[in-house]
Design a protein that fits this description.
The chain is built from two helices and two strands. By secondary structure, the protein is of the alpha+beta class. Strands 1-2 form a two-stranded parallel ribbon. The radius of gyration is 13 Å and the shape is globular.
């Protein structure tokens, strides 16, 4: 299970929420290319500035692409 946050300006809060959940300073972010273009650079920079190693997986946009098989 996982927590889902809904609200305004969540990207600013995301780093704290993510760091609080990590057992080790590394993370894999899975996102579609649309969201990556809009938000990934800022999120990645904020995490890396906290000493978190970030790896990324970008998938094409669309519900049909959201599957473990694609990963």
């Amino acid at each position: 299970s996982y927590t889902i946050l809904i609200g305004h300006q969540l990207l600013a809060q995301a780093v704290e929420a993510i760091v609080a959940q990590l057992k080790e300073p590394r993370i894999i972010i899975v996102t579609d290319s649309n969201l990556a273009r809009l938000h990934l650079p800022k999120l990645q920079q904020a995490l890396e500035s906290r000493g978190i190693r970030v790896e990324k997986i970008q998938i094409p946009p669309g519900e049909a692409r959201k599957s473990f098989k694609l990963l």
